[in-house]
Write a structure and sequence with these properties.
two-stranded antiparallel ribbon; 364 residues
């Protein structure tokens, strides 16, 4: 047993929640962002600003033509796989061999492709690491083992994982349509909490394909956390903290949350209010990329995703036009209400002595 542990340690294989549940999931979100999300943003910019370079097909594969954004989006599987491989500290030959593995897993996973890529890549990466540099023909053995094992695993589990993930996502969206108040509150709070935790809310939303009203509730929850912490801690962190948390990530507050968990109450309560408002009052829907549902105000990706959905709905004929009420709802849910409600709840807790000045100070 000791020899096995020593061998795994030498290979850099660490079976832990942090390795697979935090590092790999976080990397998955980065891979999604740099491919699918960036591709969506580029396509939207090209269409809305009439930029020829971004709207014209630049390459064709068979009968399919791709724009710049289309190419980026098509690489979502390899992008996720390489990002996860990097997070797992794979040797170069293993890392590069994950490119076809990611492509295959995403294609086989269908609508739940990102989650399939996540699971398959972890298995393929660890198997590749086991044989890496163990033979004199490593340049042949390691890529072959990684690719063959990865695609074989993908054939076994990618489709079932994709189907299951999609079913869960559809169930959440169906429940949100059926009970928009309670599910809006639940989805908003849980996805918002996931955004602040050292896991990836974007990856979760992408894995389950959260769109529609459920996606809108997720956007509301993420914005409540990011904008809430940014505004609540303005006295301590000033403009640098406002930008870092409001446009970056509320995850920066995790060390402070561990010291005083009560600072998490105001933005979470705010999300439990803005979520139902998003679903019941403003009918805020995310009909863009599912990954945008879990991004909040990070680079304003959540808002771009909502806008992209509006544009797509208009093009499909399911929406007549973007109305002033659409913009009012988006601004209130994503910016104004999170700031006002979080600050209000924070001041109440300060009067009770639960939160003190300096509790949300960041080392910026």
């Amino acid at each position: 047993m000791d020899k096995i542990k020593a061998f795994l340690a030498r290979k850099g294989i660490v079976c832990s929640f942090k390795q697979y549940g935090v590092d790999a999931l976080g990397a998955m979100a980065q891979g999604l962002f740099c491919t699918l999300l960036v591709g969506t943003i580029l396509n939207t910019l090209g269409q809305q600003l009439h930029i020829g370079f971004l709207t014209a097909p630049i390459v064709s594969v068979g009968t399919v033509s791709y724009t710049v954004g289309g190419l980026a989006s098509a690489m979502v599987g390899p992008g996720i796989a390489v990002a996860i491989g990097s997070a797992l500290r794979c040797p170069p030959l293993v890392l590069y061999s994950l490119i076809p593995v990611g492509f295959a897993a995403n294609a086989m996973g269908g609508a739940g492709g990102p989650l399939a890529v996540y699971a398959v890549t972890i298995i393929a990466a660890e198997l590749g690491k086991l044989v890496s540099k163990e033979t004199r023909i490593d340049i042949l053995v390691t890529p072959c083992v990684t690719v063959i094992a990865g695609i074989a695993v993908a054939q076994l589990i990618a489709a079932p994982i994709g189907t299951a993930a999609r079913a869960v996502g559809l169930a959440i969206m169906w429940a949100t349509e059926l009970q928009p108040f309670f599910m809006g509150m639940l989805v908003s709070a849980l996805i918002g909490i996931a955004l602040t935790l050292p896991i990836s809310s974007a990856a979760i939303c992408a894995a389950f394909g959260l769109t529609g009203l459920a996606g809108g509730a997720a956007v509301a929850g993420c914005c409540a956390q990011m904008v809430g912490f940014a505004v609540m801690s303005f006295r301590e962190n000033r403009w640098g903290g406002l930008v870092a948390q409001g446009v970056g990530t509320s995850m920066l507050q995790m060390p402070n949350i561990l010291k005083n968990p009560r600072i998490w109450i105001p933005p979470t309560l705010a999300s439990m209010i803005t979520g139902p408002l998003a679903t019941c009052v403003f009918q805020l829907q995310m009909n863009g990329s599912p990954v945008s549902s879990g991004m909040g105000t990070c680079g304003f990706v959540g808002q771009i995703g909502v806008y992209t959905g509006w544009v797509s709905d208009i093009a499909a004929g399911t929406k007549a036009a973007i109305t002033p009420m659409d913009w009012i709802g988006l601004i209130l849910i994503c910016f104004i209400l999170p700031a006002v409600l979080s600050t209000l709840f924070c001041r109440i807790l300060e009067k009770r002595g639960w939160i003190r000045e300096g509790d949300m100070k960041l080392d910026l």
